[in-house]
Amino acid sequence: TAMSPWERNEAGFKPLGLSLVTLGAWHLRDRNEPATGLQILEDTIRLSRLVAQERDARPEDPGVEAEALAELRAYARRTDAAGLAPVQALLDRLGTPYADRVPLIKAQWRMLDNTLSQRISTADLDPERRVALRFLLWYWQDMAEWIIAHKEEVLGLVQGPPPAFHDYLERQDFRWKREERRWGPLYGMWRLIRACATVESQYHGTRIVVALEQYQRANGAYPASLDLLVPSHLANISVDPVNGAAYGYRPEGTAYLLYSVGEDGQDNSGNPESDLLLNTPPPA
Fold first, then answer.
1. Are 237 and 227 in contact, with CB atoms under 8 Å apart?
2. Which one of 3, 68, 83, 113 is most buried, by most CB atoms within 10 A?
3. Which residues are bridge partners to 256 per DSSP?
């Protein structure tokens, strides 16, 4: 099976993607060319989503979109009311990222199968190495058969908050469970799901940031609660995809704190060491 350039490139898409994000941010901050900067960031996000579905999506790949969204939030904090409209339109065009995670999981397994098959058939492998790889192929095939047998459960959990999938795997009595990286390829699946949920959380958080800034420009202060953004600035307030609960929010004088829960899935009141802060520093 022919591999895409991203599959052959061990560095992955991230270095190129982050360079494009830096270019877009430069146009926004230093060149004062918002139209160009926003277009670069939008194109970069679209490319990162496309790459993730055409290759074995790596858990770090969604981080490119996370960086681009952070630049959009920073721009929203410092621009005027007129500058917020293009950001809102950009987010509308993009839509929710990784809402369907099944294609990413399938791409990851397809690449795993291709890689193992090619390595096992390589003539210059010593016999012991080839035997070891054949054992790994059986090992992963065993897990694949388990996934097929539990397909409906697994796919339902893949679409939901990552902690639920983690807890589900912990409860299973896998005969191939090991102390370190206990789930083999399922461990990579779990990391990918967690990364996608984090980026999805940042996408919805960016929409909330834009709505908060629109509210502040119109009213001179930030709202007492996120519910006041509906329906004038948002149709509804999305829940946090990381844990299925509400985003953390509280106004703080002329600023505010908006955050998503961190990798532990617990609300730690906006602690920067454990939660993901979605508001950038206020404009100077």
1. yes
2. 68
3. 251
Strands 248-252 and 255-260: antiparallel
Strand partners, 255: 252
pTM: 0.79
Cross-strand bridge partners of residue 251: 256
Tell me the residue type at 66. Answer: A
pLDDT in tens, 32-81: 999 999 999 999 999 888 877 665 555 556 688 999 999 999 999 999 99
Q: Alpha-carbon distance 197 to 217, whole Å?
A: 30
More confident residue, 159 or 82: 82
Instruction: Kindly list the strands in the beta sheet with 248-252, ordered across the sheet, starting from the edge strand earlier in the chain.
Output: 248-252, 255-260, 276-277
Both structure tokens of 259: 């955050």
Token pair listed for 34: 């918002």
- DSSP-assigned beta bridge partners for residue 249: 258
Q: State the pLDDT at residue 62.
A: 67
* 229-249 per-position pLDDT tens digit: 999 999 999 998 888 889 999
- Give the whole-angstrom CA distance, residue 21 versus residue 65: 9
User: What tokens does 173 get?
Assistant: 């009595």
